[in-house]
Amino acid sequence: MTQITSEISKFLKAHRVRAGVSTTQCAEYLGLPESQISAYEEGLKQIPFIDIVALANLCNIPTSDIVELMAKTALVELPLSTTAVKKN
Question: How many domains is the chain built from?
Answer without folding.
Answer: 1
